Amino acid sequence: MEQLKRLWEKDTLRVIGLMSGTSADGMDAALTEITGSGTKTKVSTLAFVSIPYSREMREMILRLASGREGSSRDFCLFSFLLGQLSLEACLAVCEKAGVAPDTVDLVGSHGQTLWHVPNAEAFAGYQVRGTLQLGEPSIICEGLGCPVVSDFRVRDMAAGGQGAPLVPYVEYLLYRKEGQTVGLQNIGGIGNLTVLPKGGRPEDTYAFDTGPGNMVMDQIVERLTQGRQRYDEGGKIAAQGQCSEGLLGWLLKDPYLKKAPPKSTGREAYGKDYVDALMEQANAMSLSGPDTVATACRFTAECIRVAIDNHCPDQPDYLVIGGGGSRNPTLLRDIRQALHMPVLVNEDLGFDSDAKEAVAFAVLANECVHGSCNNMPSVTGARHPVVMGKISI
């Protein structure tokens, strides 16, 4: 408690946020300084790093996240290994900022999602929901000597929520406008949309996963290049192809797109089995590799269009794209063609697209240690606000 008391007595905290996403490409770390909490929160980012995973590490994540493989030994050792890699990312971002690691006050660590079941399934004779994020926080705590907040999603799920998305709470604090309705589309492995109605309160905010972001495109590219490329850098492959209306029509029949929010999804829906079926369709249509990638790229854009048209009672005045997808000019072109509104990127507003999610977990950790409710029931479907996060000291 003495460590937490010291945090409460400081005006500004130096907080690291950590994120390892569904793309499983690396560990992101953002070093921030945070003043205040709740609607008085002010954040500045001192440094950001993204540490790529080795091929072996990425293959391990994808294997354990497949739902078909992995022993208790694998999950145990993976959690401690990811904790060590998380600590190394913390040290790397401190070095980049020229900051001594022992001056860090707090860490917020999302961990790696390996399975997410937001809707009850039959299990051992019961109907059960759940979510699993691993990455042992005690390793970080021991290495830096400061409190670590982790395992955010489970408290929201215990209150009946989907445990996702979590970033909208932070988006409300940092992006809201009194006179405009703001749309925020993050494109990581999965795409997720947040809408902040003009002049709205926290409970007026709504958000949900739109479907695949980069995940499907990444898997196709990795297959086409026999693993030489993990993703379509700069959208170059998609730019060489033509969208297949036939394959796009097949993709748009995805029942997830019609499902009403609150809703969330992940690798369990858009992983290997999904891409196997997609590639089978593409081969049956005799599509080239670039045409298949171009169609998957357009599908991500169309998922956003469908989400806004069908599930957003408040049409955004503009849409801000963040995440790795904001670095793909072909995808941005497709989104602009699909939507009838200005489409910006985070940098247009003075934010860093790459650092956004890591910064969000720094803010969520700050809220947790201040005892502030940091979920959004209007977004996740939880019965009431809760304080998300488990604190390791």
Sequence-ordered SSE layout with sheet pairings:
Blueprint: H1 2-9, E1 12-20, E2 26-35, E3 42-52, H2 55-64, H3 72-97, E4 106-123, E5 126-134, H4 137-144, E6 148-150, H5 153-158, H6 167-175, E7 182-187, E8 190-196, E9 206-212, H7 215-224, H8 236-240, H9 245-251, H10 255-258, H11 267-270, H12 272-284, H13 289-311, E10 318-322, H14 329-338, E11 343-345, H15 356-369, H16 377-380, E12 390-392
Parallel strand pairs: 1-4, 4-6, 7-10, 10-11
Antiparallel strand pairs: 1-2, 2-3, 4-5, 6-12, 7-8, 8-9
Helix pairs in contact: 3-4, 6-15, 7-13, 9-13, 13-14
Explained architecture:
This protein is of the alpha/beta class. It folds into 2 domains: 198 residues, 2-Layer Sandwich (Nucleotidyltransferase, domain 5), CATH 3.30.420; 183 residues, ATPase, nucleotide binding domain (Nucleotidyltransferase, domain 5), CATH 3.30.420. Helices cover 41% and strands 23% of the residues. The protein has 16 helices and 12 strands. The strands form 2 sheets. Strands 1, 2, 3, 4, 5, 6 and 12 form a 7-stranded mixed β-sheet that branches. Strand 7 and strand 8 form a beta hairpin. The radius of gyration is 20 Å and the shape is globular. It starts with a helix and ends with a strand. The mean pLDDT is 96.
